[in-house]
Design brief:
- The protein has 171 residues and is an alpha/beta fold.
- It contains 2 helices and 12 strands; from the N terminus they run E-H-E-E-E-E-E-E-E-E-E-E-E-H.
- The chain starts with a strand and ends in an 8-residue tail after the last helix.
Length: 171
């Protein structure tokens, strides 16, 4: 994640436009799409707001996430789990068999977003923008409450309109 500091006045908009131009010219990052074996040595890194596919050990009957506020796991058919990053931090993933024996215990490290992010500080207020290829507002843990809530409200209204077929709100 890249952080930049700005002050109030006419410059934040110009600075954001400049930062977007700089990031748009950078090379794209490639991500592996292969499942990560849960038995791999060490832990796994999952980017915030993304998911990772994990192959579970044979005979897995129960899957436990140490802190579900940091990551979540959903078991899929065929011995595969989807790990979704929810918040910054570290937790673990434990696979148990039917007798309660531990089949695997691996750490999960949730790190900042993988996309090109610009963080704008206005004093103690923080706003986050995703800049791939244009800078757009994003909802990120740690943003100022007003900015976060406004973005979340717009996203909720947009989702409601999309699910409702785009019908105009009743008056």
């Amino acid at each position: 994640m890249t952080a930049f500091a700005c002050h109030r006045g006419p410059w934040p908009g110009l600075f954001l436009a400049f930062a977007c131009t700089v990031f748009a010219g950078a090379s794209n990052t490639a991500f592996a799409t292969e499942p990560v074996p849960a038995s791999a040595a060490g832990g796994m890194v999952v980017y915030l707001d993304q998911a990772k596919i994990v192959k579970l050990p044979e005979r897995t009957a129960t899957l436990v996430i140490g802190n579900p506020l940091i990551a979540d796991a959903v078991v899929q058919p065929g011995g595969v789990a989807v790990i979704t990053a929810k918040s910054y931090g570290a937790t673990n993933l434990v696979a148990l068999d039917r007798n309660g024996a531990t089949l695997s215990d691996h750490s999960i490290q949730v790190v900042g977003p993988a996309d090109r992010v610009v963080v704008v500080y206005r004093g103690i207020d923080r706003e986050t923008y995703s800049c791939m290829p244009n800078c757009e507002r994003r909802i990120t843990i740690g943003d100022t409450a007003g900015y976060f809530t406004a973005n979340l409200g717009q996203l909720g209204a947009f989702s409601s309109q999309a699910q409702g077929g785009g019908a105009a709100p009743a008056k």
